[in-house]
Amino acid sequence: MRIETYGHEIEVTPALRDYVETKLKRLERHFDQPFEVRTQLCTRKPDYVAEATVSLAGRTLHADAGAQTMYAAIDILADKLDRLLVKHKEKKTDVQRGTRMEAVG
User: Fold this and answer.
1) Tens of pLDDT along 9-61?
2) pLDDT, tens only, 50-65
3) Helix 70-97 / helix 14-24 crossing angle, nearest 10 deg
4) What is the dihedral of CA 24, 75, 13, 68, to 10 degrees?
5) Band (86; pLDDT cuts 50, 70, 90)
6) Rg (the chain; Cα; Å)
7) Which of 47, 68, 75, 79 has the fewest C-beta atoms under 10 angstroms from its C-beta?
8) How distant, in Å, are the alpha carbons of 14, 53, 84, 85, 105 from that of 59?
C-alpha cells in the first residue's frame, strides 16, 4: 500500500504525515493486492478537513471527514475508509460467488 499525503493551504508536518500513515496502515488487512491512498489535509474555517481517494484495481473510492482538530478529522477519515473498503470487499465477494440478493416484490 502506498500512502501519499499532501496539504492544501496547510503545511504537512512530519508528525501529521506519520499520524496519517499509522492510522491508514490498518486498511492493508482488507486486500492482498497493492493499492494507493491519496490523502489531502486542508482547513475550512472553523473545521479541519481530511479527504482521501483510494485507488484499487478497477475502482476508486473517496471519503472525507471534518472535525475541530486535524487529528480528529484523520481518525474519522480512517474509520470511514475502513467501512468503505469492507463494503466494497463484501460486494466483490457476493458478485464473484453469484449470491447477489434479488429484489422480491
Assistant:
1) 899 999 999 999 999 998 888 777 788 999 999 998 899 999 999 988 778 99
2) 999 998 877 899 999 9
3) 30
4) 160
5) confident
6) 16
7) 68
8) 30, 10, 12, 11, 31
Whether residue 46 is preceded by a cis peptide bond, meaning omega within 30 degrees of 0, is: yes
Q: Hey, what amino acid is at 17? A: R
What's the per-residue H, E or C state across the chain?
A: CEEEEEEECCCCCHHHHHHHHHHHHHHHHHCCCCCEEEEEEEEECCEEEEEEEEEECCEEEEEEEEECCHHHHHHHHHHHHHHHHHHHHHHHHHHHHCCCCCCCC
The answer to whether the CB of 6 falls within 8 A of the CB of 18 is no
Give the distance from CA 25 to its chain's centroid: 10
Which amino acid, 94? D
